[in-house]
Amino acid sequence: MVIARSAFAAALVFVGADLAAQSQPVPAGQSPATQPAQRPAPIPRAAPSTRATVEVQVDRRWSECAWNNELSTSGPARIAIDYGQPHLRGRNVIGMPGVVPWDSVWRTGANMSTQLTAEVDLTIGNTFIPRGIYTLFSLPTRTGWKLIVSKQVLQWGTDYDPAQDFARIDLRARTLAEPLESLTFWLVPARENPPSTAFPHGLLKLAWGNLELSTDWRVGH
User: Fold this and answer.
1) Cα separation, 118 vs 55, whole angstroms
2) Which domain holds residue 85?
C-alpha cells in the first residue's frame, strides 16, 4: 500500500510540473513552436525547347535481296529525323557561344541528340549510309558546314565522341530573307511518276535563323 501511494504521489508531481511548464510565459523575442508552413504547390512550366519529327515513308522494304510490297511485311519503310527544337527568342544564334559556336561540333537540336532512323539503305550527299539508327551532329565554320553522321545513339546531345563518326558530309548553305524562329528539318521527296525507274530521292534541309542548309538523299547507292 505504501508503494502504491508513493507511485501515485510521484505521478501527481510529474503532471503538475508538466502543467507548470506549459503555463510559463514565452520570453520576449521568441515564438511558440508551430507547425512548419506548407509550401505552395509549384506552378507548371513548359520546357524552353520542343521536340519534333520529320518522316518520309517508302512503300517497299528491302528483304532477302528484293523489294517487298508493304502489305507483305510490316508496313512502309521509314526515313525519319527526330530532334529537339530550339527557338530564337530574339537571339542571333549562328556563331553564338554556348548555342551554335563556330568551329565546334553542334548537337543540331536541343537536349537529347538528334536521331536519324533509316529502315532502308540511304545515300546522303555522296555517302552511303546502311540502314540503321544514327545520331546527327553538325560542324559550323565560317567557310562551310558539315553534317556529321555518328554511330553513337541515344546519348545527351552534347555527348559527342569523334571516334564514333561514320561520315562527314558537306552541306550547301544559303541566307534566308526572313529568320526562321524554330530549328526545322525537312525531308522533301522528289515526285516521280511512271515510267520513271528512279528510287525514292529528295532533299534534306535544316534551317534556323537566317541560315538554311541542305544536301541530297536517295534510297540505295
Assistant:
1) 10
2) 50-61+75-192+199-219
